Amino acid sequence: MNPKLRTARIVLPVVMGVLCLLAWEAIVRGLRISPHILPGPADIGRALVEDWPLLSAALWVTLKITASAFVSAVLVGGAIAILFSLSKWIELTFFPYAVIMQVTPVVAIAPLLIIWVDNVQAALLICAWLVAFFPILSNTIVGLNSADHNLRDLFRLYGATPGQTLRRLRIPSAMPYFLAGVRISGGLSLIGAVVAEFVAGAGGQGSGLAYRILEAGYQLKTPRMFAALLMISCTGVLIFLATSWVSQRILRRWHESAMERES
Predict the structure, then answer these.
(1) Model pTM?
(2) Domain ABC transmembrane type-1, which positions (predicted)?
(3) CA angle in degrees (0–180, nearest 5) for 196-200-206
(4) I want to staple 40 with a disulfide (CB 3.0 to 4.6 A). Which of 25, 165, 186, 213 is the partner?
């Protein structure tokens, strides 16, 4: 990539963000808006520093649920996608139920899971997994089925077993689709964890940053609410950057979508 373009991709968003924060602070101070209604960036930063022990502990809880749900979604979703690709009958039988799991709002499922599962953390993990699971499954299935049919016929002609065809042709062909699903699933894992924590927090079960947002709302500590929201947003951005970096590293040497070209 052109060095100037690489620099611009970093500098321009940072400059725009700083300008927006300055304008936000100026409007809040100029109109004398109460911090209970709309805190300025300075108030949010102060709350982040003062409440760091409380918020960092809650962030760690949310991160553990997010990471567990994400890893489970990648492993289980990938394994089920491979199983579906090996048997069309199994895919036709069970894929509709995966769709039902995906389209059912997690907000509707979370209260039931919290009632049925004695461990609140386990219930939150299941909710986050349900949200993150489907992109891995659907993307990987598409990738496995998109392998060149001429190459599949060639493998069959040379007597390759289904396992050899899967390992040497279909999985490499599916890798870009799988990694795209991973990038989507990373953010959805966090979203699922936060939504489940909101439901649990509304029911009096304290856990994670979402509960701290609810708690701060009840206490009219709006700067703390914004500080917790900022931590969630930054976590989501870091997850996306990490999964994008891994995808780039895996694909950059052989796949068109990640190869750098001279401009």
Answers:
(1) 0.87
(2) 59-247
(3) 120
(4) 25
Q: Which residues of 109-147 are buried (b: 16+ CB within 10 A; e: fewer)?
A: bbbebbeeeeebbebbbbbbbbbbbbbbbbbbbebbbeb
Q: Mean pLDDT for each consecutive 10-residue tract of the chain (263 residues)?
A: 75 90 92 90 93 92 93 94 89 89 84 84 90 92 88 86 86 90 93 87 68 89 93 94 90 67 54
- Is residue 212 within 8 A of residue 58, CB to CB? The reply is yes
